[in-house]
Design brief:
620 residues; alpha/beta; 7-stranded mixed β-sheet; 5-stranded parallel β-sheet; 40% helix
Length: 620
């Protein structure tokens, strides 16, 4: 069956009895391919039939399917003729693991972060209506994404629509970790409401048949807040907003899904179709451990075991160990995550200190202000969050945390290039957006021991402070270079002359190699570990300007607003007689690929940086 799918809408040519075979072939294809390339497996296995049903009922690219987050779009890519791209999935120059408009006209909207699909879909609906066009808009959102406030802002706005807009709630009980909060409990209740779904339709039909008084009674039922409505209308939360609720529908029954979509298309207004799916469906290891197979590296299909050998401690591992040890000494230390307890290294903290652990769901904005409230109440909150997700809480960091100078610790994980997830997940803007906030202190460690020292310093600091560290194995060389952390002070490692290299955080490993290559070529080279991106160490800059011709900054952040630009501004403002070379990422979005490849492409690898430094110095 899979060979007959070469382009969008080919699935419509299959006979009904062939669809089950196709679903099985798609699952086997995904398991085989992702076992070699890595990627998001469990979420994609869970939406095979749901995706097939949408492609059977709707016509692409005319109709618009918008995927929330988008990591579950692999079946959609297969059904739109991109099957051959899976050998290069998430590799540099290859197919993205997320929807990309530049990749296919069947991808209606670029996604990568959660809780956005309803807003984007609503925009499409109004664009359609204003231009008097005729196509369907379908926004697919997971139950985990409904913990994000943006989804409710969009639902509130969508409730005023008088034309069709289909929202698919893909309910699999999971985001990455298991879902938390009131909406999760509410949806759990709805999952048992199949009886009431039939009751609602039956009661409504009976009342419609009663002359004169039937329709007014229906209207009264829709308006009332009484227990009668609780019984008759499952999904009352959505119905009260003016959004028609359909479901729950079994998410692995293609014929029932198709029927539900055809019904949804008839409704003149917003409609929410509640679909129950199983994350990891069809592959036992992923069914048992959907969190493990959310994003997975290459693995053995027979066992589900990941192929990679035992690695050294990651920065995330170090963070998790140290925060637990600090919490043992200080009962005021509390930890916050936005649905990423395992990913941010807080699983151990959750187990040891459940009363001091808070998973707020996919709600970074709330997490930041929640942390501010905890700090104002006398606690020491540590909010562990990925760099690219912290962007969502920028307003709260300014107004609720930094404006009040509250002692909130931001543990900014996955900072810098993260690799295969691509543009939406690269943590390459945090130095810029954090260092522009008054009262905010920004640090970055050179190795795992310095991360531990900086976290202890941050917890003791009486103000907002961000600790930035990357994904992957923690650098464990230069263990003896571990001087105490002093506020705003950089660390001098090699004090020479002529060229001074100042590295930020985990780029220290590359800076050491750059210095080594320069020394081999006969250049004198100082090496400084910046430590603090804000405030910058003005004293060490003044000192370096006395006997150096060239100051080089190295950071894995975009050029604009980064550490290097702060150094340039200081040198210019003080009219210091030295040339500054800033080595950073371009002011652009960096696509998916391995970190080594991305550094070469962005000229931030050791050889490229060494050549650039030599070129500039030789011209002085």
């Amino acid at each position: 069956m899979l060979e007959r799918i070469q382009k969008a809408n080919d699935i419509k040519e299959l006979e009904p009895e062939e669809l089950t075979v196709l679903a099985e072939e798609i699952r086997q294809f995904l398991i085989e391919k992702i076992s070699k390339t890595g990627g998001h497996l469990a979420s994609n296995l869970g939406v095979v039939e749901l995706t097939m049903a949408m492609h059977l009922v709707f016509r692409l690219p005319q109709d618009k399917i918008i995927w929330d987050v988008g990591h579950q779009s692999y079946t959609h890519k297969i059904l739109t003729g991109r099957k051959d791209g899976f050998d290069e999935l998430r590799k540099y120059g290859g197919m993205s693991g997320f929807p990309k408009r530049k990749e296919s006209e069947c991808d209606a909207f670029d996604t990568g972060h959660s809780s956005t699909s309803i807003s984007a879909g609503l925009g499409y609906v109004h664009a359609r209506d204003l231009q008097q066009e005729h196509y369907n808009v379908i926004s697919v959102i997971g139950d985990g994404s409904l913990t994000g406030g943006m989804a409710y802002e969009a639902l509130n706005n969508a409730s005023e629509l008088k034309t069709n807009f289909i929202i698919v709630l893909n309910d699999n009980h999971m985001s990455i970790s298991e879902n938390v909060g009131g909406m999760s409990h509410y949806l759990a209740e709805l999952r048992t409401a199949e009886f009431y779904t039939g009751l609602k339709k039956g009661v409504t039909n009976v009342l419609h048949s009663i002359p004169v008084i039937g329709d007014p009674i229906i209207e009264q039922i829709h308006r009332t807040k009484s227990s009668l409505k609780q019984l008759v209308v499952p999904g009352m939360f959505f119905e009260d907003m003016g959004i028609t609720y359909l479901g729950p529908v079994p998410g692995h029954n293609i014929s029932m899904l198709c029927k539900a979509f055809r019904e949804a298309k008839k409704i003149k207004g917003p409609v929410l179709l509640h679909v129950l799916t199983q994350k990891g469906k069809g592959y036992e290891p992923a069914e048992k451990h959907p969190d493990k197979f959310h994003g997975v590296g290459p693995f053995h299909v027979e066992t589900g075991e990941v192929e990679s050998p035992k690695k050294k401690d990651t920065y995330t591992d170090v963070f998790g160990k140290v925060i637990c040890s600090e919490a043992a000494k200080n009962p005021k230390v509390v930890a916050i995550t936005a649905a990423m307890a395992d990913g941010t290294g807080l699983a151990g903290f959750r187990k040891k200190y459940p009363d001091r652990f808070f998973d707020v769901g996919i709600a970074e904005e709330h997490a930041a202000t929640f942390a501010a409230g905890l700090a104002a109440g006398g606690m020491k909150p540590v909010f562990a969050v990925y760099s690219s997700f912290l962007q969502r809480a920028y307003d709260q960091l300014i107004h609720d945390v930094a404006l009040q100078n509250l002692p909130v610790v931001l543990a900014v994980d996955r900072a810098g290039l993260v690799g295969s997830d691509g543009e939406t997940h690269q943590g390459i803007f945090d130095l810029s957006y954090l260092s522009n906030i008054p009262n905010m202190v920004v640090m970055a460690p050179k190795h795992k021991w310095e991360l531990a020292d900086m976290l202890r310093f941050a917890i003791s600091y009486n103000g907002p402070i961000a600790l930035r560290y990357p994904r992957g194995s923690a650098y464990d060389d230069y263990q003896n270079f571990r001087s105490p952390i002093e506020y705003g002070k950089s660390e001098m490692l090699y004090d020479e002359a002529e060229i001074a290299v100042l590295s930020v955080g985990h780029m220290f490993e590359e800076a050491v190699q750059v210095r080594g290559k320069l020394k081999e070529k006969g250049y004198s080279c100082t090496l400084v570990n910046a430590r603090f991106v804000k405030p910058i160490d003005e004293n060490i800059l003044n000192r370096l300007c006395e006997n150096h011709k060239l100051i080089v900054t190295i950071e894995e952040n975009v050029q604009t607003g980064g550490y290097g630009e702060h150094v340039v501004e200081y040198v210019s403002r003080k009219n210091l007689k030295v040339r500054v070379l800033t080595l950073a990422l371009p002011d652009d979005y960096v696509e998916h690929g391995s970190i080594d490849v991305l550094r070469r492409e962005t000229r931030l690898d050791v050889d490229s940086m060494t050549a650039k430094i030599q070129e500039i110095y030789d011209r002085l």
